Amino acid sequence: MKVCIYLELEGSIGKSGIGTAVRHQIQSLENENVLISKNPYLLDYDILHINSIGPHSLFLANVAKAAGKKVILHAHTTGEDFVDSYHFSEYVAPWLMKYLKRFYSVGDVILCPTNYTKSLLCDYGIKKEIKVISNGVDVSRFENIPEIRDKYREKYELDEITPFCVGHVFAKKGVGTFINTAKNFPERKFIWFGNIFKKFIQSNTLEMLKNPPKNCFFTGYIKNILAAYAAGDIFIFPSYNENQGIVILEAAASKKPIIVRDLPTYDGWLKDGVECLKAKSEKEFSENLQYLIDNPKEREKLAKNAYKMVQEHDLPKIGAKLAEIYRSV
């Protein structure tokens, strides 16, 4: 079996969560007897697996269908997820939802990372078969976190329990909540590791980033993401909307205690008080953080449970599921 895994504008969005998901797909299939192509123009594949929603992706899907190929469309993007990402995204989102209904309906099978995303696609009126499969994470990649911890703690001048976040800096990701939480702990250093797209993000977010609290730091893009998980202690992810959140899986693989916003996308796999603490408000983010700072045993418990949970998202298991889906199309 030969599968073409395609991502439109890969050079531009390869560092995004979608880019990471595509790399995970390819890596997960290494031991699954599946030949991988990244050239959709040769039409020498059995299945075209598209991970983007652009017009060229739609064109290639239609070309593949006309050639008798099977097409799998991976739903990494929803209208709800798009809001508060870029300038005017809230105005584009309603039109995007209409386009996505047309786009995803072209596929023979639709893949998505959580039951929450599946429910959104069903609400769009999409009638095609929808299968849920995690974006996954390479758990083994994070095994040496303890060994490199001192190096990066020294680099970022950290000497106490450090709350941190990983991801692109957008309003949707909850950067305002992160900053406001930092204000409640003025003697403690907070660090956000991730790209800042100043040309695209909203003006109110830029204003916050110009004058953050003195204890709140934004590193910008870092090449070695392991540095973030080695340096930080408590992972705070205040995003307002996610289809899954690969960084949560990475934090779990790094054995970090996790605080997230209480979102429906986490239902069923992240339980409050078991694998994480959930916050419904900025006040609860601060309360949960203080609780974890004061309770090392609770930090250890949450981290241990999250690490157990993430084993189900390890790439070998995801690859086996993905190969099974390919064979069933």
Topology:
Layout (H helix, E strand, L loop, with lengths): L1 E5 L3 H4 L3 H12 L6 E3 L9 E4 L4 H12 L3 E5 L4 H4 L6 H16 L4 E4 L2 H9 L5 E4 L12 H11 L7 E4 L8 H9 L6 E4 L9 H8 L5 E5 L5 H6 L2 E4 L8 H8 L4 E4 L15 E3 L2 H13 L1 H15 L4 H14 L1
Parallel strand pairs: 1-2, 1-3, 3-4, 4-5, 5-6, 7-8, 7-10, 8-9, 10-11, 11-12
Helix pairs in contact: 2-14, 8-12
Structure described in brief:
With 329 residues, the protein is α/β, with parallel strands linked by helices. The chain has 14 helices and 12 strands. Strand 5, helix 6 and strand 6 form a beta-alpha-beta unit.
- Number of contiguous helices: 14
Query: For the record, what is the CATH homologous superfamily label of the largest domain?
Result: Glycogen Phosphorylase B
Strand percentage, roughly?
A: 5-15%
Domain unit count? 2
Instruction: Report the CATH architecture of the largest domain.
Output: 3-Layer(aba) Sandwich
Mean pLDDT metric = 94
Distance between the termini: 12 Å
Which residues form runs of ≥5 with pLDDT under 50?
none
What's the oligomerization state?
single chain
CATH class label of the largest domain:
Alpha Beta
Q: What about the largest sheet? A: 6 strands, parallel
CATH topology of the largest domain: Rossmann fold
- Principal-axes geometry comes out as globular
Structural class: alpha/beta
